Amino acid sequence: MTPSAPRIPFLRRSRLLRRLASPQRIKSPQRLLAESGADLEGHGLKRTMGLFQLVCFGVGAIVGTGIFVGLSDSVAEAGPAVVISYVLAAITCIFTAFSFAELGGAIPVSGSSYSFAYASLGERAAFLVGWCLLLEYGVSVSAVAVGWSQYLNELLDSLTGWQLPQALSAGPGDGGVVNVPAVVVVLLAATLLVRGVRESARATAAMAVLKIGILVVFCAVGFSAFQAGHLSPFAEHGVGGITAGASVAFFSYIGFDAITTAGEEVKNPRRNIPIAILVCIGLVTLLYCAVALSAIGALGADAVADQPAALSLVVDQVTGSSVGGGIIAFGAVVAIASVVLAVMYGQTRVLMSMSRDGLVPRVFERVSPKTATPVANTWIVAAVFAVPAAFASLDVVVNLTTIGTLAVMAVVNLAVMVLRRRDPGLKRSFRVPLFPLSPLLGIGFCLYLIWGTGWTTWLQFAGFLVVGTLVYSGYGRRHSRLVTAPDGAAAVSPGA
Question: Residue 341 and residue 57: Cα distance in Å, rounded?
Answer without folding.
Answer: 9
